[in-house]
Design goal:
heterodimer; A: mainly alpha; Cyclin A, domain 1; 5 helices; B: alpha/beta; Nitrile Hydratase, Chain A; 10 helices; about 40% helix; globular
Chain lengths: ~100, ~220
């Protein structure tokens, strides 16, 4: 049976980069959104659902994306699945923010 | 303008009076990721799922949990046998009453005590599960492919990379965290600390010693 991309225990790997990283505002906001959505008393979704969403990312994306970039895609997927946001509305909003910021998506 | 260096790139500092102010990392992350975060946040606020204040309060709560809390817990466990016994038996209620923490909506927590015979190391091979409510956000290396892959098969060489060499006869037990179960290590109390008070002891307890990749500092 082949392992999924996230299941890396026991795989060969190189030296550990022990550098400490400070969190960015992006990191903090993605983290906070997940905590609020997965709060047991809110119940929009569970941590297990979040993990399933992260673990079903495309393997290449899983390796290339930074930690909270994986998270924001997983939150997006779940928010759409649970009907909290509409996919088309989200795309539209991203485009309008990009235009506001004059940054290409 | 002051900057801080991340090795491969440099960020402008947000305010000289707050060196830890978070930075909006437009040069670090894909623009798509940043747009996705902002669009999601805006739409979820418009839907009434949460408010801007909720987000800020959650960020503040997360940032308020640091390894300093864990160090106080360990120092207490070193000096107070009854507390240590309660912590090892059922950690959440013991912490809740001794440190006034509301852990009701947090995953289960198991506390593991290092001895002369056994040393514990915590990891999460599948993702990044960590006792966030006691230690804060995990360090980047804890979430890295290298740590997650290797610590479960070659813990002794991983510990060596952290500068930790244990006697050959000491057993190393690696525990793999899950979404529902987190682990916290009580490191061995260093020799030469007899009679020390909790505050002095807590200064010897590092984050890495509570994950198990290091031992407590030696005075």
């Amino acid at each position: 049976m082949s392992k999924n991309v996230h299941d890396m225990g026991g795989d060969p790997a190189g030296l550990i980069d022990r550098a400490e990283h400070s969190r960015t505002l992006f990191d903090q906001r993605v983290d906070a959104m997940l905590r609020l959505l997965a709060h047991p008393q809110k119940g929009y979704f569970t941590v297990d659902a979040m993990r399933r969403s992260i673990e079903s990312l495309d393997p290449q994306a899983y390796h290339e994306l930074a930690y909270y970039e994986r998270w924001v895609r997983a939150v997006r997927q779940l928010a759409i699945e649970r009907g909290l946001v509409d996919e088309a509305a989200l795309e539209q909003r991203m485009a309008s923010i990009a235009a506001r910021r004059a940054v290409k998506p | 303008m002051s900057t801080h260096d991340h090795g491969d790139h440099v960020h402008p500092e947000h305010g000289a009076d707050d060196p830890h102010a978070p930075i909006d990392d437009f040069d670090h992350y894909r623009p798509e990721s940043l747009l996705m975060e902002q669009a999601l946040r805006e739409l979820l606020m418009e839907q009434g799922v949460f408010t801007a204040e909720d987000i800020q309060r959650q960020i503040d709560l997360t940032e308020s949990r640091t390894p300093a809390l864990g160090a106080r817990v360990i120092a207490r466990a070193w000096v107070d046998d009854a507390f240590r016994a309660a912590l090892l038996a059922d950690a959440k209620p013991a912490l809740g009453s001794a440190f006034e923490l509301d852990l009701a909506n947090t995953p289960e927590l198991t506390v593991l005590e290092n001895t002369q015979a056994v040393h514990h190391v915590v990891c999460c091979t599948l993702c990044s599960c960590y006792p966030r409510n006691i230690l804060g956000i995990p360090p980047a290396w804890y979430k890295s492919r290298e740590y997650r892959s290797r610590v479960v098969i070659e813990p002794r060489s991983v510990l060596k990379e952290f500068g930790t060499e244990l006697p050959a006869q000491r057993e190393i037990r690696v525990v793999d965290s899950t979404a529902d179960m987190r682990y916290l290590v009580i490191p061995l109390r260093p020799q030469g600390t007899e009679g020390w008070d909790e505050e002095r002891l807590a200064a010897l307890v590092t984050r890495d010693s509570m994950i198990g990749v290091a031992q407590a500092l030696v005075p």
